[in-house]
Design brief:
Number of helices: 15
CATH class of the largest domain: Alpha Beta
Largest sheet: 7 strands, mixed
Distance between the termini: 86 Å
CATH topology of the largest domain: Aldehyde Dehydrogenase, Chain A, domain 1
Strand content: 15-25%
């Protein structure tokens, strides 16, 4: 049975939005490929550096009005936007599948999450307060104000563009900033639709602007002196280039980068639940999530039973047509990505890992798309390439440990520090181990449930710096101004 193709009539077309205009981008024509079938979804013109300059100018022009708007009015606009996203979720849902092969069942959750972010941070818009400070050295009045940067540049990845963009945009807008958003050329549709809904919600023209493109567009944004801050979600390699370019203007850069998150399974854990949550590292976002738990560390006494559970559960995961209601996992983003993932799996096997399940590209009805089944590699050396590096595909690597001390050491023996997942029924151990994890996001007996707008999210080490979510996320988009007033005659 052939997989369904994207419905052309549902695709948005505005890849460049500057103020209240939707010009054709100045860049080359781009053919978007649907990962499930390898067919062209649509063609559109990419943005270029001149479009970036115009978008920044539109944002700068809109900033005085947006900054001066009272917090209650910004709040009401953001609440209206949240409600409109919910009302139009049926428009958004298929686009999330069309752009990167996400399963259709995930779409409503992604739309709901986007609405929640605008509603949560909209609630902060009328609660931005400063503070007074008792000063030394004589009578004076000293106070602190939290001010917007002006124009924020948001550069987001293809694996979850709506999720990533709203993590940035919601707090940035609540803080009084305007936004230039870069959609990834290989997954642009949800952000095209989001900007359309923002316009329909009544946001002033220029408060949110959209450019679509690759590294050249991102470079133009980072180098533009009119952008006060860049928030980037993506790979460490790209982050290094951004930091180098940002040195020209000395603008601050927020980074949420990759991970090789450890999953620690202790012998006293609920193994069935731990296996189900461990498998989520391969299934969630088709294995292409930055915070997915993909490095499984399992206490030796339950190592083989745990592997057997993973193998059995993997057999129930339907991999296939993202637009089918019963599909649990879809394709990876491209043929190039699939080749890279398979190469890493082969490297792991050469380094001594054994294949528990998966490992080979799917053919038959899957042959035209970019499909790999859930792949579990056991007996993986902690020093091997596949244990140290992010695969960004549906691949789990599993290593045994013999003590809590060894588990902690193995978990922290990584350049990354985005997430960690601990499975135990011992509350003291849960607290003890969590407090030793060198990771920005630690969950005990969970696999992603903490990813809500009210909690801070971000990494340590090579997984980035800064936080998105919660009050910490709001502060990312505010500058501190201190004012001292002499009260002496």
């Amino acid at each position: 049975m052939a997989f369904q193709s994207p419905d052309q009539s549902r695709l948005p077309t505005a890849a460049t939005v500057i103020g209240d205009s939707q010009p054709q981008g100045g860049g080359a024509k781009y053919a978007h490929i649907y990962p499930a079938t390898g067919e062209v979804t649509s063609e559109f013109h990419l943005s270029d550096a001149s479009d970036v300059a115009k978008a920044v100018a539109a944002a700068q022009a809109a900033f005085p009005e947006w900054r001066a708007m009272t917090g209650d009015k910004r709040r009401n606009l953001m609440f209206k936007l949240a409600a409109l996203i919910e009302e139009r979720a049926e428009e958004m849902t298929p686009l999330l599948s069309y752009e990167n092969g996400s399963i259709l069942l995930a779409g409503p959750h992604m739309s709901a999450d986007a609405a929640q972010k605008f509603r949560y941070f909209g609630g902060w818009a009328d609660k931005i307060e400063g503070r007074a400070i008792d000063t030394w050295g004589g009578p004076a009045h000293d106070y602190v104000r939290y001010e917007p940067y002006g124009v924020v540049g948001a550069i987001v990845p293809w694996n979850g563009p709506l999720f990533a963009a709203t993590m940035i945009m919601a707090p940035a807008l609540a803080a009084g900033n305007c936004v230039v958003l870069k959609a990834p050329e290989n997954a642009p549709y949800s952000l095209m639709k989001l900007v359309e809904i923002i316009r329909d919600a009544g946001f002033p023209p220029g408060v949110v602007n959209l450019v679509t493109g690759g590294p050249d567009v991102g470079e133009a944004m980072v180098g533009h002196p009119g952008i006060g801050k860049i928030e980037f979600i993506g790979s460490g390699g790209t982050a290094r280039k951004i930091l180098a370019k940002a040195s020209e203007t000395l603008k601050p850069i927020g980074l949420e980068l990759g991970g090789k998150s450890a999953v620690l399974v202790f012998a006293d854990a609920d193994l069935q639940a731990a296996a189900k949550r461990g498998l989520a590292g391969a299934v969630s976002a088709n294995g292409q999530g930055c915070v997915n738990g993909t490095r499984l560390l399992v206490e030796r006494s339950v190592y083989e039973p745990y592997l057997q559970m993973l193998q059995a559960m993997a057999g129930y995961v339907k991999v296939g047509d993202p637009l089918a209601q019963d599909t649990v996992m879809g394709p990876v983003i491209s043929d190039t990505a699939l080749d890279r993932i398979q190469s890493m799996v082969e490297g792991g096997k050469s380094d001594g890992a054994r294949v528990v399940v998966g490992g080979e590209r799917l053919d038959g009805e899957h042959k035209d798309g970019f499909f790999l089944p859930i792949t579990v590699l056991a007996d993986v050396s902690p020093e091997s390439h596949i244990a140290k590096n992010e695969v960004f595909g549906p691949v789990l690597v599993v290593t045994p440990f013999d003590s809590e001390e060894e588990a902690v050491a193995l978990a922290n023996d990584s350049d990354y520090g985005l997430g960690a997942y601990i499975h135990t029924t011992n509350l003291a151990r849960g607290h003890r181990v969590a407090n030793r994890m060198m990771a920005g996001q630690v969950q005990v007996n969970g696999s992603g449930e903490a990813m809500t707008p009210c909690v801070p999210f971000g990494g340590m080490k090579h997984s980035g710096h800064g936080r998105l979510g919660g009050i910490e996320g709001l502060r990312e988009f505010q500058q501190v101004r201190n004012v001292w007033i002499n009260l002496q005659d």
